[in-house]
Amino acid sequence: xxxxxxxxxxxxGLVYGIMVIGVYLTFRILDFPDLTVDGSLPLGAAIxxxxxxxxxxxxxxxxxxxxxxxxxxxxxxxxxxxxKILHLLASxxxxxxxxxxxIRIMGGPxxxxxxSNTIFDPLIALGIPGHYAGLIIFAFFALVVMMLVIxxxxxxxxxAILATGDNPQMxxxxxxxxxxxxxxxVGLSNGLVALxxxxxxxxxxxxxxxxxxxxxxxxxxxxxxxETIFGKSTIARAIIAALLGSIVYRLAIAxxxxxxxxxxxFNPSDLNLITAILVIGALIAPNIKKxxxxx
Amino acid sequence: xxHDWILVKQPVKGxxxxxxxxxxxxxxxxxxxxxxxxxxxxxxxxNQFVEHPxxxxxxxxxxxxxxxxxxxxxxxxxxxxxxxxxATQIGQQMIGEKADLLVAIATPSAQATAQALSKAPSGMxxxxxxxxVTDPVAAGLVEALDKPSEYITGVSDLLPLxxxxxMIMTYKPDIKKLGVLYNAGEANSKATVATLKDLSGKMGxxxxxxxxxxxxxxxxxxxxxxxxxxxxxxxxxxxxxxxLESVLKVGTQNKLPIFAADVDSVxxxxxxxxxxxxxxxxxxxxxxxxxxxxxxxxxxxxVESQEVxxxxxxxxxxxxxxxxxxxxxxxxxxxxxx
Lengths: 295, 338
Fold this sequence. Notes:
The complex is a heterodimer.
Chain A: H1 3-29, H2 37-53, H3 58-81, H4 87-106, E1 110-112, H5 121-125, H6 130-152, H7 156-166, H8 168-173, H9 178-204, E2 206-208, H10 215-230, H11 235-257, E3 260-261, E4 264-265, H12 271-294
Chain B: H1 4-7, H2 16-32, E1 42-48, H3 53-68, E2 73-79, H4 84-97, E3 101-105, H5 107-119, E4 128-133, E5 152-156, H6 161-171, E6 177-182, H7 187-203, E7 206-211, H8 218-225, E8 231-234, H9 238-242, H10 244-253, E9 258-260, H11 263-268, E10 272-274, H12 278-293, E11 304-305, E12 311-314, H13 315-320, H14 327-332, E13 335-337
């Protein structure tokens, strides 16, 4: 792995980390397996790409993406709570509907943003090289999102979300409307995922309807890698771990891309396998260490 | 277990046990990734979007051209396995590899590479050649086909649709309605269908569309065309071509001739195609690669498209789908499958 690729992986880890925090909210806190994210990530990308190409400020475009993603999450949560559709199916339905909706929004499957205004422009105008501009902006967004979510979960509403995931009977008996809580929680999660998608699109130079494929897989993998390596003793720790898990996941891919043993090189099609093996290595390392220390 | 000798060599500042663990993984991989670049040979980094017979053929054609023309090149091939996030990371990986030439195969990979290139510091910028991209202008890669940028040019696989339709109309002059089967999520196909609609007005037939979002939906989409059209045309669509056999089955069962846009599909059992040969596409890309490696600036190489077209007919499939080819086409065919 070259230094440049490592920086790239860090950048990707941070921007996808925002998505991972979103997945953490539904998957761990609300105990709501939400596949909507495969559709809300490209939704955020699509909204921000259309906004930017029609001349709207790229930062405002991010806000639109966030709201769009929130809306998608709300739809899934309403299907689940008000219409009693199983959460998994409700999210699948929203996800497949979003495929067509995203094509509608973009007027086609792909919008190029190469050469358009992006959120990186102000930094690049200051003379900061492009590959650092991405890193700085994504680090900023990821940290702000992380802190806001940690803060939010300490508010009354946030506590209600935590309690709803832990023990819905108890929270209902306290007179809290769990439907409302689930709708807010899943909406917020997808808002973050869409924000992540909008940032990714601006970074990779295009929004594409296919860019959401595998989002939930990367999200779940990152959440679990994060909590295994970095722990989950408190909510704040678990959310930081989710972000770090995302970085580890992207570093594993970067590592797999550059892996060579002398003259032996892997087949390019082995990439996913090597990534999986590296992540497994990261997951079992703490366990092995514990056993060796216990001896 | 003592790994301190590795930890000394790694650039990440370990803070706490967890950071050490990651650092350890990183450092191990850095040690084993020995780079052995030969001084006299060129290095070409490739960003391929997905494993796919046509895209693989492009890569092979590119490699073969350079080999046939005495250019020694070490290829660093990366495959995004159809994941856009990975394609972006490959773009950054390629910049870090400091190759002599960057090549991207298919639109998403080309966009990711172009973006990585635009963000790279000036000392790390390299010439970049895209290939198997249908509409490089809409994809934002170049301003215009004859106006490549300082670093970026390539080969477009824009389908010579007019020639294709002429061939289909010669083959089966009684076509009133032409079915077209594609994935609305593929930018390439969307562009093709738009052009096809323009052409249909001029050539006097109607276009009947059916879409499938994934390979599992192709069979149903193909069936939906039965009775609604006189023949089916399949553009260079990754989803449909991947599940071509299910379309051919529907064509055979219902005597509905299936025409394809690439010759590989004819070998698999489509009636005929007006030659899109992805191997030749790659070979043509190779010729551009050689020029760039030998010092020509991409700015002086306009975007090319496929020069040589060939007509291939599958006689067995033609009989099975009840559409015998006219003699004039059989005589002019480059290749006949019997």
